[in-house]
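Input chain follows. Return structure tokens only.
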Amino acid sequence: MFDTLLFPVDENDGTTDVFEHVLDIATTHDSTVHILNVADTTRDSVTRIRGDVVDTLEQEGKQLVRETADRVEQRGVSTVTDVRQGDPYRIIIDYAEANDIDLVAMPTHGRQGLERLLLGSTTERVVRRSDVPVLTIQPDAADELQYPYEDVLVPTDGSDCANQALAMGVDVVSAEEATLHLLSVIALTSLGVDVRSDIQQSMLEGSATELLDEAAEFATNAGVESVSKTIEHASSIPKAILSYINDNDVNLVVIGTHGRTGFDRYMLGSVTESLIRTSPIPVLTVREPVENGE
């Protein structure tokens, strides 16, 4: 299902193990891996100096993609390499769309040296804006990841974006012959202490049961043989998802970039953002397609 993968590379040491995981995917799916380096000409120091500095950045980028391509070819995987100038996140998004990329894979932080639990600005912006699905991986956990995926989790709130993630999750599960885990989390904080809380909780549980049944039916009709459905009550939805991951040995999470809260299309939903920052396993984010060019 992933015929073309895009892996943007820079000098960050944390990308090595992440790239090995990407190569595992590419080898299994007989994918072509596009290796892209972007000379960041938007930085103040580069903007002021330009000339020789930009040339040096490009030469370093060419050397980096050559070395990366050599590693790929040793695994018997075909490659396409390119070096561009500009704002990294814009170039990555434009490149993915122009080259019909099926999946963009990136570490959750990069050369800017941010703390472990923070997204690097380039990765964050790509996840927010890319119409192509994005696989984000924590560099610190990359050497412990499992592939092929055997257990895939799709948290859902019934939103259109969550349904897009469900469709992608079903495709992944079918390709990997994995088990699909469907999860709906009812946030206890939304119930308050009102005397009507019991009634509200019953309604929320009924809605959650209905949307999980519909999601399971969709997956079964698509040929998925193993599907589990779970409703959790928790004060924190991201923590409930992380707990489920740990308790059920999940290998991959597939989630929409925003849910029912109506975030602007250039913003991440708070649940997705928290999950990308803290998940010990890869997170595959899917954004609802934008219609009418908006």
